[in-house]
Amino acid sequence: MAQQDDFAPTVALADEPATAQALDIRFTGSGSEYFRIWIVNLLLTLVTFTLYAPFARARRIAYFQNNTLVGGDPLGFHADPWKMFRGYLLMLLLGVGYWAVSNFLPGLAWIALLVFMVLWPALWRASLQFRLRNTSWRGVRLSFAGDLKSAYSAMLPFFLPALAFVLFLPEVTEDEEMSTEAARFSAIVFGTVVLGFSLLMPWLLARLKRYQHGGYVFAEQRTAFRTGTGRFYGLFLKTGGVSLLVAAVAAALFALVMFVLARGMFTDMAAGQRRVLVTLLVPVALGVIYLLIPLVSAPYFGARFQDLLWNGTRSEKIRFNSALRFRSLFRVTLVNWLLIVVTLGLYWPFAKVRTARLKLEAMSLAVDGRVDDWLASAQQAGKGVLGDAAGDFFGMDMGL
Length: 400
Prior knowledge:
By secondary structure, the chain is of the alpha+beta class. The protein has helices spanning about 30-45, 55-65, 80-105, 110-135, 150-155, 160-170, 180-215, 230-265, 270-310, 325-340, 350-360, 370-375, 390-395; strands at about 20-25, 70, 75, 135, 140-145, 215-220, 220, 225, 315, 320, 365-370. Strand 2 (about 70) and strand 3 (about 75) form a beta hairpin.
């Protein structure tokens, strides 16, 4: 064995391995605070015929981001609502134009759809750029580095089912009755497109999220998305299995109730009365099953999907961790649904705050080295103008 020297060689400080620094995420908002913002936003949006929507959106985003603490420091939101308003007007004009062509000139609907297909990926990318450029942490702006070509590659496949319907389904006017052959052909086209889109949905969603989560930039750190497409197919299959299990259990419980009634109350009823009771109970049971499936499957998918996305998102020095549990999200969702129904919708802002707190505080970040050392070299990103209204107007949450 070689004898060790009396003095070990000096190792430079820069050569020492960087230690990981954990940054937790906390949400400090409250339901009562957000309720005041929400009710004012709702009333002003209704009074102005939705023209206040971009200003309401800016207030909502600012509240949630300002109350999100990463490592003890809040996120900032710096967007100019008037720039969001101009983007909203553009999206409103495009939406009304598409609706008008589809309803009054149905023969030209495919042209309107093509125009929408050409514009939407660029607006979606602009939306991501606008949102991130106006978000900051510790004085440093975030940015989005996804290129335009990849945006089209990720988004365009989602339009193929609509394009297939417009091109292949026969056009029928209100006064015209569809022939048997045309009805059969329409059913084949519809079934084929829906089945094909359902089978490809996990693959399409994986492409979309790979583009989105692979373009986040902060302090010269660009993220990459390293989750394979097979994990998305596994999640969809498991969610489908959970839905079938819920439906089977609910149907079995209903069958058990009907059996007990048949052995008890049904024996004292006339045949007509039994038919009436069954006619009433079956729709009620189907309605309960219809509500139970999303009540269980939506939290299951939501919890697994958040973990799938953020655990696979990382850069050279930043790693995201998510440990959202199904039972926690299910419990919060169940209480939220019940209280929203009981309060006739007034509990909605409290439900949003509770859900946001649960999802955000299930996440954390691990940063290699000292944050201050590499924040100093961060590049300040510029501001965008259009795109932010696109996600809100058409109901597409980009998951930012």
